[in-house]
Amino acid sequence: MILPKSNRLTPEQIAEVTSIVSEFGCSIQPIVGAVRTIYAIVGDERDELMINRLEGLDYVERIDRIQSPFKLMDRRSDLASHRITIGGVTLGEELAVIAGQCTIDPKNPNYFLETAVAVKEAGAHVLRGGVWKPRTNPYSFQGDSKSIEILMEASRVTGLPVDTEVMDEEQLHVALEAGVQMLQVGARNALNYSLLRSIGRAVARRSTIVLLKRSLHMGSLSEFISAAEYIAAFGNPNVILCPRGTAPALDGYRNQPDESITPLLKEKTWAPVVVDPSHSVGRASYVPACALAAVAYGADGLCIEAHVEPSHGIGDDPKQALTPAVLAETVAQAKQIWALRHSAVT
Ligand code: PEP
Ligand code: MN
Question: With a 6 A CB cut-off, is 279 part of the ligand 1 pocket?
């Protein structure tokens, strides 16, 4: 990793470092952080002669050689000062709330539009809505591309940025063209490395944010953070980690709640952590407690399914969605816990 003395290298300087590293079979990938652009050396960056030549350049502050499988997302990375802002909230400075329906019902768009207004009133900064859905049963409703128009209409009406899951390149490009600000990688695709790469490539020169769910199986923390590195490695470090429960389930819950990994993640990575209590416990009556526990564990935000009339929802909404009133109460309590933590913990 090349850390320049200034905020970024000039085109001539990039040409010079590129020519040096290419002699050693490497290339340069700029990563645009909030404070400065840093330059990842792609390839085997251990050659001492290459490092010495780079360190000898007067515009290079230093060469960072973090021995980590996720050197960009690592806590020790220069990107640790990078901040992600969406919907008027900077993660880490205020509790971020993403809320909305599991699934947009294209036959009943008004429910989504009403839900959008209601979640905004309840305190959401980002509106979530599933356009395409990963369903266990191939005969269940799989989503509908037309719902992207409903999603963007709700965004226009409320002024909220939106989050939706994409599962393949076609959906990825439809979502980006429509102006979706936050792309969700679902639990089933969290280890789909070719999808992660495609997303990384597609968001590289954009301000798009990626909400990366934890994979369904109980993988290691490094596996989770390395999945985020796949995206960041293409140049956009706006990746948020989202624990959402793992398999096998805790008897009674939909999954094994995993909000407790938040402090462990934070020891290893600077990436913000937004917990999804809805898929973790899988029932509306258990969601508020899980949400509050997540904030107590240090989560930077919550991603919660909500619906104006859960029983009329589709997908997970009849079981999991909070009503706007319960969402508002949960957000208010979660903010209190957030404030307590941030006054007590330095
Ligand atoms: C969802 O957010 O509706 C969803 C399908 O999430 P996950 O990938 O965590 O199951
Ligand atoms: Mn869902």
Answer: yes
Q: In which element (H, E) is residue 118 found?
A: helix 109-122
Residue with tokens 């407690």: 289
pLDDT digits (tens, 9 = 90+) for 174-207: 999 999 999 999 999 999 999 999 999 999 989 9
Shortest-distance Cα residue to atom 1 of ligand 1? 102
Pocket test for ligand 1, best of 141, 189, 244, 280 (most atoms within 8 A of CB): 244
Query: pTM here?
Result: 0.95
Which residues make Cβ contacts (< 8 Å) with residue 259, sequence separation at least 6? 243, 275, 277, 280, 290, 293, 294, 297, 299
Residue 115: both structure tokens together: 């839900």
Residue nearest to atom 9 of ligand 1 (CA): 187
Above 50 in pLDDT, residue 87?
yes
Atom from ligand 1 closest to the CA of residue 315: 3
For residue 180, what are the contacts with CB-CB under 8 A and spacing of at least 6?
148, 151, 152, 162, 163, 164, 208
Q: Does pLDDT of 346 surpass 80? A: no
Q: What is the spatial distance between Cα 88 and Cα 98, in angstroms, rounded to a whole number?
A: 12
Q: Which ligand is nearest to the CA of 128?
A: 1
